[in-house]
Amino acid sequence: MLTLAKxxxxxVFCDFGSGFAQNVILALNEFGVKxxxxxxxxxxxxxxxxxxxxxxGLHKKGRIIFGPFEDLEDxxxxxVTILFYGxxxxxxxxxxxxxxxxxxxxxxxxxxxxxxxxxxxxxxxxDYPFFLTYFPQTRKKYPERDWLMRVVLQPETMIKDSTxxxxxxxxxEFSHNMDVLQFRDDLMExxxxxRKVAHP
Length: 200
Prior knowledge:
It is a single chain. By secondary structure, the chain is an alpha/beta fold. The chain folds into 2 domains: 12-135, Vaccinia Virus protein VP39 (Rossmann fold, 3-Layer(aba) Sandwich), CATH 3.40.50; 144-197, no CATH class. Helices cover 36% and strands 18% of the residues. It is built from 8 helices and 7 strands, in the order βαβαβαβαβββαααα. It has helices at 22-29, 43-55, 74-77, 92-100, 144-151, 156-160, 167-180, 187-197; strands spanning 12-16, 35-40, 62-66, 82-85, 108-113, 125-127, 130-135. It has a 7-stranded mixed beta sheet, covered by helices on one side. Helix 5 (144-151) crosses helix 7. The longest helix is centred in the C-terminal third of the chain and has 14 residues, at 167-180. The two termini are 31 Å apart. The relative contact order is 0.11.
């Protein structure tokens, strides 16, 4: 995931739903980012994460903030260059990033995964199950089919032949993927959100 984002010494990494700080530690130790922030709303994981950073001597460059992503101050988010958003998204996520990350001189990346697709974010890069969207966004409006083509993990038979898949077939495959991940109940919401930002 951090390889896909090409994380490096000039980056500030933020992990929403950081758990026990695995990604925060990885970003600092393996990718040498200048700063890493975790956001965690569970007391036990928060305490253990902070202890791990102390034990590893990473507490000066890494920190864990308590609370939901919505409460993260814009002043903190504006300094982030790589955001991993691996939990349930909501419609306002991308619009908030568009507002806070409006500086075109800074190379910013949103990373998300197949568990919680973000219809409002067109995947510029893909390393399944991770997707990367650049900010400022390269595409704010796009056909449903284009987004589905980038997000759907197609079976080998679909990959090997050159048949152009219909939008209906791609939605069926996306539905199957949601079934496998046990998120089929969210399918209608994904349709609604994608159609809101898509153009024919």
